[in-house]
Amino acid sequence: QVQPVESGGGLVQAGGSLRVSCVVSGRTFNNYAMGWFRQAPGKEREFVAAISRSGGRTYYAGSAKGRFTISRDNAKNTLYLQMNSLKPEDTAVYYCAASVRGDSSYVTPLPTMYNYWGQGTQVTVSS
Asked: Distance between CA atoms of 35 and 23, rounded to whole angstroms?
């Protein structure tokens, strides 16, 4: 059973930083392209960032570019999202997702291309 589990969310002031993590149990972690998504109250789930199986390729939503960094440690089965210069509009539940599709350089912003999802971790940015 493949199960992503997020952690590291919390309350932070605007302009601050936070790192969220996602540990994936089950099959070999480096078999998956990974992504971060978020969902704010009353809004659709939206793409934040994605990373290829090896970590050599990344892709960001416009709202995340320059402020967020996605990374992975395949030896620890762990995905990270470092978030800097946080804004109140970044407040959301953050989800990690794993995709078995594509080759080693595959990244995708499409939620339908991901096979496994975590339960999410709440990030709240106060003004």
From this structure: 12
The pair phi, psi for residue 102, each rounded to 5°, is: 75, -175
Integer Cα distance of 94 and 64 in angstroms: 13
54-67 tens-digit pLDDT: 999 999 999 999 99
Return the amino acid letter for 8. Answer: G
Structure tokens at 122: 């709440």
Task: Return the sign of the alpha-carbon dihedral for residues 11, 5, 47, 72.
Answer: positive
- Say if residues 48 and 61 touch (Cβ distance below 8 Å): yes
The residue count for the chain: 127
In this structure, are residues 114 and 100 in contact, taking their beta carbons and an 8 Å threshold?
Answer: no
Pinpoint the alpha helices (H) of the chain. Answer: none
Given a cut of 90, whether residue 1 has pLDDT beyond it is no
Q: Could you give the CA distance from residue 75 to residue 79 in angstroms, rounded to a whole number?
A: 11
